[in-house]
Write a sequence for this structure.
């Protein structure tokens, strides 16, 4: 068994064309996992990722702030304690509201593929 304290995991800048801004960091929780990609993603106010899809399910667990999860047909506000499961191949985006920073734990299958669907 292994226990990780999120507050003690180093934040790394995450610069990618997937995001609408540069105020994004990640914390890799279990870098040696053989099955799961498990990270905390931290968004600055108003920053989101662009429409994308994964080739496996993705789970988001909101840990701080207020965010938005959206598909092509709906947008929902999500807050601390909300858990979202996104089916494989569903076009979606998620990120912070304009008024709040936002963090979530991201879990998916190790080695899964993300396809960016918005420029």
């Amino acid at each position: 068994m292994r226990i990780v304290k999120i507050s003690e995991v180093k934040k790394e800048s995450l610069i990618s064309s997937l995001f609408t801004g540069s105020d994004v960091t990640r914390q890799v929780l279990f870098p040696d996992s053989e099955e799961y990609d498990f990270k905390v993603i931290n968004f600055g106010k108003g920053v989101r990722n662009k429409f994308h899809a994964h080739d496996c399910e993705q789970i988001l667990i909101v840990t701080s702030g207020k965010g938005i999860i959206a598909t092509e047909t709906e947008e929902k506000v999500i807050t601390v304690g909300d858990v979202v499961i996104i089916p494989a191949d569903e076009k979606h985006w998620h990120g912070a509201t304009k008024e709040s920073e936002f963090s979530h734990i991201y879990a998916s299958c190790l080695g899964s593929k993300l396809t960016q669907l918005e420029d």
In short: Residues 6-113 form a domain with the Jelly Rolls fold (CATH 2.60.120.10). DSSP finds no helices and ten strands in the chain. The CA atoms of residues 39 and 95 lie 15 Å apart. The mean pLDDT is 97.
